[in-house]
Amino acid sequence: MRIVSLLPSATEICFALGLGDMVVGVTHECDYPYEALSKPKITSSKSHDGLSSREIDTLVRSQLDSSGSIYGLDIEKLEELKPDLILTQRLCTVCAVSIEQVQEVAANLSSKPQVVNLEPRTMGEVFQSFKKVAQVCDRSVESAPIIAEMEARYRNVGHLIRRLRLPTPKVMLLEWIEPPFASGHWIPEIVSKAGGENSISFKERPSREISWKQVIESHVDFLVFAACGMGVGWQKKEIEIILAQHGLTGLTRESSGTPKMWICDGSQYFSRPGPRLVETTELLATILHPELLGEFGSKFRAGMDFERI
């Protein structure tokens, strides 16, 4: 089978299930695992280099209003690749080419590929999407132990926290910085599994814009930044600017009674509904509960995957 993945998460799923050799095309944002970087790229988008989070938000909204998508699709390259299967999603117009466009293009390709929509909103549905990919690729039996191991690791985080009777700190996780977006879909569930109590969040629904006033008045113990598609370095610079602009420079770890603030790589964790959401849960658990560093801490690179402000 020849697979084209129009989602970084779907690309990660394919490789995690041992289907990497079947993948013949990916998006320009598919950067994990390393082997995905050598695959032909069939999408493109405008560069956001040098833009602030507010400027990126404005640009994306404008592109969606004018054209309905922020991505370009290389139809000629897609025809050359002759896929049997195209993996895409309907969940978020900011994350991928619209499924309507994909279906229209696929109908006109000579290979007449099957288009499979992956649209998880919960962790249970994330694991179901792994099984769906395995099924359409006729690899259900071979993939079953891999998926079972990931599910067991995810459950184990909750088991450890209950067994150790760890406290439940109040947490707000932001998926964008300016304007701030409170987390949605599977992320509130991950916060709970990692032993936190969600403040403002939208479980099983899209993330939603809130105000900095709401952030401050929520009085959380932990404020976690995981801007969608952005790494630690970019977020750190942006957060420092935003806090100063809003007169919130008192939100630092030196101030008593203020939340502990952490930055996580939103591109590699939290944003993508793929296999690494299990690692994401373990990472968040170590942030909220340092007692678990011995269990999970060695897997992550401080300053690269996450950083305390």
What does it look like?
- It is a single chain.
- This protein is of the alpha/beta class and 309 residues long.
- It folds into two domains: 3-119, 3-Layer(aba) Sandwich (Rossmann fold); 167-308, Rossmann fold (3-Layer(aba) Sandwich).
- The chain contains eleven helices and 15 strands.
- It has helices at 8-16, 53-67, 75-81, 99-107, 123-136, 140-164, 187-193, 212-217, 232-245, 277-288, 293-296; strands at residues 3-5, 23-25, 43-45, 71-73, 85-88, 114-117, 170-176, 181-182, 184-185, 197-198, 202-203, 208-209, 222-225, 260-264, 306-308.
- The strands form four sheets. Strands 7, 8, 10, 12, 13, 14 and 15 form a seven-stranded mixed sheet that branches. A four-stranded parallel sheet has the order 2-1-5-6, sandwiched between helices. Strands 3-4 form a two-stranded antiparallel sheet.
- β13 (222-225), α9 (232-245) and β14 form a beta-alpha-beta unit.
- The longest helix has 25 residues, at 140-164.
